[in-house]
Amino acid sequence: MGDKFLGYRRENGTVGVRNLIAIIPSVFCSSKVAQRISEGIPGSVHFSHPVGCSQVGDDLDVTARTLIGIGRNPNFAGVVVVGLGCERFSPHELAEGIASTGKMLETVIIQEEGDSLKTIEAGMRHARKMQQAASQQQREEADVSELMIGLNCGGSDATSGLVANPALGIASDKLVAQGGSSILTELTELLGTEHILARRAANEQVAKDILTVIHNMEERLTRQTQASHNVKRKHLISTGNYDGGLSSVVEKSLGGMKKSGNAKFVEVFAYGDAPTKKGLLLLDGPGHDGEATTGEVAAGAQIICFPTGRGTPTGFPGVPVIKITGNPRTYERMKENLDINAGTIMTGEKSLREVGEEIYQEILAVASGKMSKAEVLGHDEQFCVTRMP
Amino acid sequence: MIELSNLVAGKTALVLDQKDNVAVALVDLVAGDCCVVTDDAGKKSELSITEDVAFGHKIALTDLGKDSAVYKYGEEIGRMKVAIAKGGWIHNHNMYCERGMK
Q1: Tally of domains within chain A
Q2: pTM of this structure
Q3: A158 lies within 8 A of chain B by CB
Q4: Residues A148 and A130 in one domain
Q5: A163 Cβ contact partners less than 8 Å away, ≥ 6 residues apart
Q6: Inter-chain contact A248–B78, Cβ cutoff 8 Å?
Q7: Which CATH number fits the domain that encloses residue A92?
Q8: Which of A58, A198, A276, B82 is deepest in the core (most CB within 10 A)?
Q9: In this predicted complex, what is the ipTM?
Q10: Is residue A14 in a domain?
Q11: In CATH, what is the architecture of B9-96?
């Protein structure tokens, strides 16, 4: 058996590392009401977004699956769905998608309640009841195989690919070796390493899936560089990358890919979906920090691990984000926002493997209740549903 | 802008994977420097630097022949256009990789 952490076991067997109430609007029109409900009930979080209506096809479908996935995330003991009443993405469809988790669930609809004030009141009454019920649940021992971490880097500098990402990869490998899960995404940052990723596939189908999603991403980027005025905007590696010492796109992308360590990929899955397997996973998602981590949380990730060389304060509602910097100066300047100083590798105080272990231990501590700095400071900027062209 | 080249004291470089045949300079190095190279497990060794290598750039850990593979992160990142001796600077002036250039 693997290492243990203390978490909240849900009815469907999943384990949360937090025990919060999620207030989720089905459409942007009910976002402010959702926010007001959450402001009235400490211990709840809200998921304001600009979508849910005037969308069609894949775009609407991704919005639907992502919001359902957020509601299903085990960090939430209960969910209040807040609808307007006439939106394309029905609040009832959102609630139905969450219902099979067995968690506490209520729906309030502005056009049915009468007005926004009445809906805020109805929502607060539901959330109050859920919060009190959740407060009676105790943390219990769970195996690390129940943990899923999301990987994403942002505000990168040269130290990210050099020390922070490889150290995070060591932590990810240790979690995956014990049956846990880790999600790599940001496909735009992986171009050029597809042959290496495919070699790390657990079987032929996964290798094929990896090559397909990377190929599709590159095709999309190629289409965007067809116009003659974009002819100088097609290289995957920049002059600045060369100046910094990166000699090829393979070398550049490896620096990002290495946050996933050296484990085998067991599954490639679509944005808005949850994986069907445990282990190292590849999410077909974009490079935008918020869209990437939102896809990971919708997939069930209870914790996000986020290397940042320049330093960024962002967090995610209801999901702890562990910030790791490889730059010792950034750590000194932004200590209030950064959890792990991987700059100790740069200064020679610690080895890559030692910092990898430090990150792994921080993941276990945060899983058992230690708040990350972004969480304590209330940062929640990362929630951001991706759009389909 | 943080001056990355002045992050740490001493002449140091890092090897990211046991398979690698390059180290990455953690400070600006100049020809003639005796550099302390640390591997992923923290084991240290010394290397004489034969030409200037800026922060973040790569140093050959062994002699490499023309067309031999350059390994960083345990993976091939390109091949040598020309031979290089241990302690030399590897970059796109003497290393090639077609991927992503067309």
Answers
A1: 2
A2: 0.94
A3: yes
A4: no
A5: A326, A342, A343, A345, A346, A352, A355, B14
A6: yes
A7: 3.40.50.2300
A8: A198
A9: 0.88
A10: no
A11: Roll (2.30)
